[in-house]
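Deliverable D2.4 — example input (structure tokens):
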């Protein structure tokens, strides 16, 4: 809290928001303290996508094939298809 009081805007790292409750926690924290506490998406003017909290559903609806991560590291595949699928998914 002290840090939030010393800066105009405090951007909370997405790793702190790995569950659905994290959304409410962030909003409550900003309201209760009266400080500019936001997540990076808010700062960039983008929609909040708490993908980490949706991991189970995302992996069931957009499964990652065996070996995909290694192929990505080698530059053999990219994330284009997953980005396209993600943009077409409803917000959970």
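Example output (designed residues):
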């Amino acid at each position: 809290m002290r840090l939030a009081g010393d800066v105009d805007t405090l951007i909370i790292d997405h790793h702190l928001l790995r569950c659905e409750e994290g959304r409410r926690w962030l909003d409550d924290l900003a309201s209760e303290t009266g400080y500019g506490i936001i997540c990076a998406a808010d700062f960039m003017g983008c929609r909040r996508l708490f993908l980490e909290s949706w991991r189970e559903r995302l992996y069931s609806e957009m499964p990652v094939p065996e070996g995909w991560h290694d192929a990505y590291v080698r530059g053999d595949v990219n994330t284009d298809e997953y980005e396209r699928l993600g943009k077409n998914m409803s917000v959970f």
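The chain has a mean pLDDT of 80.
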